[in-house]
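Q: I'm a student working through a structural biology exercise. My instructor gave each of us a protein and asked us to get a predicted structure, then write a short paragraph describing it. Mine is TetR family transcriptional regulator. I'm not confident about reading structure output yet, so if you can add a plain explanation after the tokens, that would really help. Here is the sequence I was given:
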Amino acid sequence: MVEKSAADVQRHRPETEARRKAILQAAVEVFGQKGSAKGTLEEVAEKAGMTRAGVLHHFGSKQRLLLETMQYRDSIDVAGYANKHIPDGADLFRHLIKTAQMNQQRKEITRAYVTLSSESVADGNVGYEYFKHRYEVLRGELSDALKVMGKARGVEVDEKVALNTSAAILAAMDGLQLQWILDPEAVDLSEATEYMIRALVAQVFNPGEQAI
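A: Happy to help. First, here is the predicted structure for TetR family transcriptional regulator. I'll explain a few features afterward.
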């Protein structure tokens, strides 16, 4: 019989999960407003209603908390799916449109993502490998989704076209989020995202006349 460690037992306690969630929600707010460098564990602890030592008890270090804050946002996006993973084919692009609609209602989480992803390009930043891997995975999944759509239509989607379209969609989504954070009155995040995704996906299957 394999003995469970104290950490394993604690991880599944409802009260422990509730405290971890409170810390992550506080971290989203603190790091979203101040960034990973200026946002402190003390501020996270204060917002979560506990001590700095309490935060470290649950996450071990600021770096670990930062990584789990990034993952927390992604976990919210797929919480409604049975396998906790984004769908495939056309449903994946509908999911991205829905995500933009959700992001418009959760400004602090979106701000935290924009802030932490922007900071990740700095030398030695804890988020570098996370975001590099995240984009690599998402480009592959969007590319595969386009190929699934093509197969359903009896069309073979070129690999380079699929990857370029995927990279463009991800870049545009992140850029729209940044514009919306800066000026929410000028940019309708959900409408602009839906317009962009539909236009780029349509370009894959119905290139039509090149205007420029």
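A: Here are two points you could use in your paragraph. Residues 86-211 form one domain. The chain is about 75% helix and 0% strand. It's a good idea to check both against the output above yourself.
Q: Great, thank you!
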